[in-house]
Amino acid sequence: MNGASYGRTVSSVPKQRRRRLVMSFEMVRLDRASSEPLYQQLYRQIREELESGSFDSSASRVPSSRVLAATLGISRPTVNEAFSKLLAEGYLQARKRSGIFVADHLPATFLKAARPATTARTERSPRVARRVTRMTDIRSGRQLDVGVAGPPSVTFVAGLPAVDEFPIAVWERLREQVLAKKGAHLLRYASSRGEIELRKAIAAYLCDFRGANCHADQIVVVGGMQQAMLVCALALINEGEVAWIEDPGFHQARNVFAFVGAKMVPRPIDREGLVIGKCSRQNSPRLILVTPSHQFPFGVTMSLKRRKALIEFAESRDGYILEDDYNSEFRFDGPPLPCLQGLDNAGRVIYAGTMSKILYPSLRLGFLVAPPHLVDTLVKVRAVMDQHSPAIDQATLARFITEGFFLSHVKRMRELYAQRRVFFIEQFQKWLGDYFDLEVTPAGLHFIAWLRRREDLPFFMRAREQTGVWPRPLSFFCIKAQLDPAFVFGFAAWSQAQIEQGLAKLASAVKQLKQRGAGNGSSFQSHPFSPATSSYWPSAAVRPN
Ligand SMILES: Cc1ncc(COP(=O)(O)O)c(C=O)c1O
Predict the structure, then answer these.
(1) Rounded CA gap, 431 and 113, in Å?
(2) Residue 207 needs a FRET pair 20 to 30 A away by CA distance; which of 66, 114, 280, 285 works?
């Protein structure tokens, strides 16, 4: 049968058998077009029916796989596979020479506590803490779940690395080795600072390759940049105190600062990086979040002059700088500038790194390098959250670094990204060059494309919705910055064929929409962050260079 969805049911089961089979298999609907395998659909639907308890338990035999297969128009092995799963999980039981029956006690009943009777309530928003309601992120459900929006389809969402190039086999081998060596030791509670081998390996890497000036004792292993920001914000900012944030900048930082009750002050970016400008003493920032290696999303590298000025400023105001060393590994025109932390003699810079882009984001491993006087405070805050990061992953990563796989992976990825980058630029000019000026910066895994004609904006917004090719509007990353219309295109996660296909799809959708004049009604400003509620902002520079 070829139909996408079909509904042959067990109602055609021979009469004398059917009398004994009162389970309502009529509900089975299999969808051949679904990505869920047929056996899995069948297994799931039978399980749901059994859990619903709506069948007559006195006659609980199930049809034979032959009958069920014939009735549903699927193969017997498919039915057998579904049955095996239900048998293994204890939903069904086989009785010798009698057939397969519904189990006397379903796993759902012996695993699940009885649900107390509830009375219907009127829907209203739950009462939640102010720290949640003041978060400016108004996304919800699937929008909020970044995992749902990732590849394999081409989206051009920025910040996704080529995870299919990650050497899984090597990682698995190293993981086995560390488990064989350390065994149950890795299963106990681990250090809230992080595994010592990993801290040593990270410190050595940062000193050798990032121009840092640090020791393993200064390192605190955390769950990526997200946790790094939260730990620092909780440790250093009281409610109502000021945090500086780049505008445009990393959207997740806004959530963090709003969550901790900071007074968020967005700072513009010029061609030297974050603009320090004038600032009264009482509005001095407690924490300044910057991406000096590669400003996100503009791609500006902070000048040496600005770096020194920023450290001096932080020292003079008793503040700290949180350096997100974003994308420093992926520079395509020569070696990166050393990190800010290496310039800091005043103990004002906290360096943060993440494995999300270099290795893979679901690893959730990153690290802070703190001035020695702050380490214990950060560890205390980190421990309050989740004690520590998974010890097995930390030990595996330590080995991955010390045995040279880390450096060779970075090198290989840099080459791959360099090729994808050149290809993306070529293809972009071919497909979308009439609409955009592509801003080519020497580092990073995304580009900003500035729209030439503002009136094309609604067509692109519409085309994104239609195609699922989803470069984010630059306004998504802005707080108060008023910028020309532009989109941020990530290119790293997709093959050359996918890049071409994605750009062609977007271009063709825009062309059709324009022919039909069908762009109206979409709004450029419709992005899921509401404007932040902080004071401040002199009207901003438009493009930084
Ligand atoms: C500026 C910036 N820093 C860091 C990260 C990585 O965050 P995490 O380590 O939480 O995955 C991202 C992710 O997109 C980012 O855009």
Answers:
(1) 58
(2) 285
Q: Which of the listed residues 231, 250, 293 should we mutate to test ligand 1's pocket, taking the one with most ligand atoms within 8 A of CB?
A: 250
Q: Is 326 in the pocket of ligand 1 (CB under 6 A)?
A: yes
- Contact between 368 and 219 under an 8 Å Cβ cutoff? The reply is yes
Q: What is the pLDDT of residues 99-154, one digit of tens each?
A: 888 888 877 666 666 666 666 666 677 899 999 888 877 677 766 676 655 556 89
The pLDDT tens digits of the residues spanning 46-57 come to: 888 887 776 665
177: nearest Cα among 395, 470, 418: 395
Is 0.85 surpassed by the pTM of this model? Answer: no
Residue 159, both tokens: 């910040």
How confident is the model over 478-518, as pLDDT tens digits? 999 999 999 999 999 999 999 999 999 999 999 999 998 76
Query: Within 10 A of 432 (CB to CB), how many other CB atoms are there?
Result: 21
Whether 226 lines ligand 1, by a CB cut-off of 6 Å, is yes
Residue 391 has which token pair?
């010890």
Angle at 326 between CA 422 and CA 215, to 5 degrees: 130
Check pocket membership of 159 for ligand 1, CB cut-off 6 A.
yes
Nearest CA to 469 among 436, 433, 430, 510?
510
pLDDT of residue 296 exceeding 50, the answer is yes
pLDDT above 50 (res 536): no
Is the model's pLDDT at 531 over the cut of 50?
no
Neighbours of 183 (CB within 10 A): 9
Instruction: Give the ligand 1 atom nearest the CA of 224.
Output: 9
As a whole number of angstroms, the distance between CA 319 and CA 346 comes to 11
Per DSSP, the three-state class of 447 is strand
Atom of ligand 1 nearest to the CA of 158: 14
Q: Which two tokens stand for residue 368?
A: 């802070």
